[in-house]
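Per your request, structure below.
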């Protein structure tokens, strides 16, 4: 790896470590009067405690599933902190729909429409 890449990765690691630890402090602060642990945070995100500890120590998430879980919990800001491009949402949804049963597809489409409505967007109904 060249110096530029090493420098970029080092900056991302610093930014990541600062950000994720601030999120943990925020998480604990939401539980005034009842202590919340790293294990509890990991469980809520869907990660193991060792994985969460590694992330908080500055290890960058590399597994797509780990990144998805972090994004589900904290939102797309995770991509920005990690210096990653946000995924193509439409392509990802199309892939999920292709791998779903008709019943799951209908449920997903309803959820997508509900979410779009929250943001003032409209989705055209396509003929079946």
């Amino acid at each position: 790896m060249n110096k530029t890449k090493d420098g970029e990765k080092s900056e991302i690691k610093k930014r990541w470590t600062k950000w994720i630890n601030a999120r943990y402090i925020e998480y604990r602060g939401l539980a005034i009067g009842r202590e919340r642990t790293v294990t509890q945070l990991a469980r809520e995100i869907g990660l193991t405690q060792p994985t969460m500890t590694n992330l908080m120590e500055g290890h960058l998430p590399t597994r797509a599933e780990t990144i998805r879980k972090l994004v589900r919990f904290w939102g797309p800001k995770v991509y920005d902190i990690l210096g990653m491009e946000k995924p193509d949402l439409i392509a990802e949804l199309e892939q999920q729909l292709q791998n779903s049963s008709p019943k799951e597809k209908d449920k997903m489409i309803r959820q997508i429409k509900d979410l779009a409505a929250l943001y003032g967007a409209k989705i055209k109904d396509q003929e079946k």
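The chain is about 65% helix and 0% strand.

Regards,
D.
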